[in-house]
Design a protein that fits this description.
The protein is of the alpha+beta class. Helix content is about 30%, strand content about 25%.
Length: about 375
């Protein structure tokens, strides 16, 4: 199915529900954790599938929070399944909920992206923790990123095709694609070493600024990418993974390309990658260190065009200044980044850098954050 409209597209919701590996794992975790009479919070309820599984496991009340119009599905499905007296659909962004009528003992949510911490999940879970009863159980409790050294043949073949299109060479496009972070389903033969699971990161921890891991190399030869998957612990003994070779889910791997790095069988590459903006379309930078060299990558290098195009990529208006609501304008003015009722991305970045040098140590990071803020504002307008 081709999906067009995000989470209000029924095909998008269907693709998640039809991911049997995912739903089965959640069903097992919910059956294990939810006790009769429990108050449960389901964040990002979608079709209401997890809320209904919780109700069927005996929950006395399920608050099913969904920020899109999909909340209508939650209401209809709860009614059709005779669970309307247990499930209370709430249309809201969890960030805007200050309290619930009862504090939940269980919080369930599926906000995993191909690169696990998606949809601001850390921030959302931290907010859920504040709303929940002391000692509440989160599903998932934590996740680990899974790293692997890779040499994906499919990507190489695609690039080779661009070297001759009707006898014309498209080298500039090839060059950009070489730097592009790709979401790809890899096969075990695309890897040149075993997968390595990083440390468990609690779902409600602060979003890490760096994800550090290892990618062992099992055969001599060039490594051209680091593949990242995840394993989420939904409940004790119930894991959900997107690792290469595991039962297929609707998630694929995130592939961070590097210029070929000669690998030696037995060595382990050190991987450091960091997401630079908190918006949903993350951009990453990364560094891979092996015995025979260091390679660095930056997702922004792959984009075609100049800064104006970057703004468009991020969904910002690019003609004229961006009108901002009074609250952000006042806040930006305080930092020195505003001109009357508009905010200039570069000035805001400079102000962020000056005000919080430990958080935005260089202008690139500060500009990313400024763009992210402006994008959020632009969407809210
Ligand atoms: C990955 S889907 C999961 C849907 C459903 N729980 C399931 O398991 O099939 C995430 C859902 O969370 C919603 N969502 C994302 N962030 C949210 C937030 N901050 N507050 C409320 N809903 C949110 C999205 O609109 C989407 O429907």
């Amino acid at each position: 199915m081709t999906r067009l409209y995000g989470y209000v597209d029924p095909a998008e919701q269907a693709a998640m529900v039809l991911d049997h590996v995912r739903v089965d794992a959640y069903a097992r975790a919910i059956a294990q954790v939810v006790r009769p009479g429990d108050v449960v919070l389901d964040i990002g309820s979608g079709t209401g599938i997890l809320a209904m599984l919780a109700a069927r496991a005996g929950a006395g009340r399920v608050y099913a929070v969904e920020r899109t119009g999909a909340v209508e599905l939650v209401r209809l499905h709860a009614k059709a399944n005779g669970l309307a007296d247990v499930i209370e659909p709430i249309r809201a962004d969890l960030a805007d909920i200050e309290s619930l009528p009862e504090a939940p003992r269980v919080v369930v949510s599926e906000m995993l992206g191909h690169f696990a911490p998606a949809e601001q999940s850390h921030r959302v879970y931290r907010q859920a923790r504040r709303l929940a009863a002391a000692g509440a159980v989160l599903i998932p409790t934590d996740y680990r990123l899974v790293f692997a050294a890779a040499r994906p043949r499919g990507a190489e073949l695609e690039l080779a095709e661009l070297a001759d299109v009707h006898g014309l060479r498209l080298d500039a496009l090839i060059e950009r694609l070489r730097h592009r972070v790709a979401l790809t389903r890899l096969a075990p033969h695309d890897l040149v070493g075993p997968q390595w699971a990083g440390p468990a990161i609690p779902s409600d921890a602060e979003l890490p600024t760096h994800f550090v891991g290892e990618a062992p190399v099992a055969v001599d030869g060039p490594v051209t990418a680091i593949a990242v998957s995840f394993t989420a612990t939904l409940a004790p003994g119930v894991e959900l993974t997107s690792a290469v070779g595991a039962a297929a889910t609707h998630w694929v791997q995130t592939l961070f390309p590097i210029d070929p790095l000669p690998g030696r069988a037995g060595e382990s590459l050190a991987v450091d990658l960091w997401p630079r903006i908190s918006a949903d379309r993350g951009t990453w930078a990364w560094r891979v260190t092996g015995e025979r060299g260091v390679r660095e990558g930056d997702a922004m290098d792959a984009l075609v065009g100049d800064r104006t195009d970057f703004l468009a990529q991020l969904g910002l208006r690019t003609r004229g200044p961006i009108a901002t609501p009074a609250r952000l304008a006042a806040w930006a003015a305080m930092l020195g980044g505003a001109t009357s009722d508009t905010v200039d991305a570069d000035r805001l970045a400079a102000a962020l850098h000056a005000a919080m040098p430990h958080r935005y140590p260089d202008m690139t990071e500060a500009r990313q954050e400024a763009l992210s803020l402006l994008r959020a504002v632009d969407r809210a307008n």
